[in-house]
Design goal:
The protein has 336 residues and is α/β, with parallel strands linked by helices. 43% of the residues lie in helices and 18% in strands. The chain folds into two domains: 7-119 and 221-334, D-Maltodextrin-Binding Protein, domain 2; 122-215, 3-Layer(aba) Sandwich (D-Maltodextrin-Binding Protein, domain 2), CATH 3.40.190.
């Protein structure tokens, strides 16, 4: 389900939500820390793209960690599945994943604590002479295993009436895919912005063969923040709630200040601003109040169920799982 409000009406909705937000969001220099006892330590992961890194960049700039009595240990990862592994080994408490890694929470490897955005930044790309998904038959296609790029290739093949065996699928990490595509070692790839923008600078005539939007309206692609399952206990509640407050505050500031969030993220990542700006335009942003409402009315569950159906058709997951078993929506709504 997408938000079809006109831009002017949507702006008013966001401004209304921001009006009740803490003063620190409007005036970053003002601290409204509500420390109770010793600060809580939290190990937080993110992916080095705009939609993942911007929340960290905003939280750092507004000092939301201190405001909510947290001491963060922040680590950057190349993709979601690696973060889920770190959650499983107890080396990470919270992380950020794109839609392609949602099959891992569905299978019990993590808990989803918050939706980030509904994104449109994933692409299946082909070299200049490859103009359709069908043209990839028998060709080498690179994907990062278990990510949204991998997911989109599978979905594109399915919609084109093809099978995974019709291509030579090879797995690489995102940075290696960039190098391999630019050097012509692969014919196609499932990858996302800002990596697509980086590749296009060197291969300007590449073809974008399939995107998230090509799967609408049946499928929506939410990215999410996740938590290691062991923290879903009374002993983890204070940390969980504090992290949710950071996420909500950062989310609402970003929704009203996307251009500034691009600047902060470029500085955090030491990355070209233009690539991040392009990525920033490839998403539907929601205020935290809107996400709470979409949680309560079942919309978020419908997004997750749609992903579950898709992963089941790919053979990634064996069955449909009630989203309430892994999406902690009630805690998201309650966190103030």
């Amino acid at each position: 389900m997408q938000n079809h409000q006109p831009p002017s009406q949507r702006r008013r909705t966001l401004l209304k939500a921001a009006a009740i937000a803490p003063a620190a969001l409007a005036l970053p220099g003002i601290q409204t820390a509500q420390a109770q006892g010793a600060p809580l330590k939290v190990r937080m992961g993110y992916i080095g793209d705009f939609h993942g890194a911007s929340m960290i960049a905003v939280a750092n700039k507004l000092d939301l960690w201190k405001k909510h009595n947290l001491v963060p240990d922040i680590k950057v990862f190349t993709n979601g599945p690696i973060q889920i592994q770190a959650l499983g080994t107890g080396d990470l408490d919270f992380g950020y994943i794109g839609p392609g890694a949602l099959w891992l929470p569905i299978t019990g490897k993590a808990k989803v604590i918050a939706i980030n955005v509904v994104g449109f930044s994933d692409r299946v790309i082909g070299q200049p002479g490859i103009k359709s998904i069908q043209d990839l038959k028998g060709k080498t296609v690179a994907v990062p295993e278990g990510t949204s790029g991998d997911m989109l290739v599978r979905l594109a093949l399915q919609k084109a009436g093809m099978k995974l065996d019709d291509i030579k699928r090879v797995t690489m990490d995102p940075s290696t895919i960039v190098t391999a595509f630019i050097s012509g070692q692969v014919d196609g790839a499932g990858i996302w912005y800002p990596h697509v923008g980086t590749i296009r600078q060197r291969v300007p005539n590449l073809n974008e063969l399939f995107s998230n939007k090509d799967a609408l309206p049946k499928n929506s692609f939410p990215s999410a923040f996740v938590m290691r399952p062991e923290l879903d206990a009374a002993s983890g509640q204070a940390l969980h709630d504090a992290v949710l407050r950071v996420i909500k505050d950062a989310n609402d500031w970003r929704a009203l200040n996307v251009a500034q969030a691009v600047d902060l993220t470029a500085a955090l990542m030491n990355a070209p601003r233009a690539n991040l700006e392009a990525e920033s335009k490839l998403a539907q942003y929601y205020s935290s109040a809107e996400l709470a409402k979409l949680t309560e009315d079942g919309t978020v569950n419908s997004w997750l169920n749609g992903m579950n159906e898709m992963f089941k058709s790919f053979g990634r997951v064996p069955e449909m799982v009630d989203a309430q078993k892994y999406y902690m929506g009630a805690r998201y709504v309650a966190a103030k």
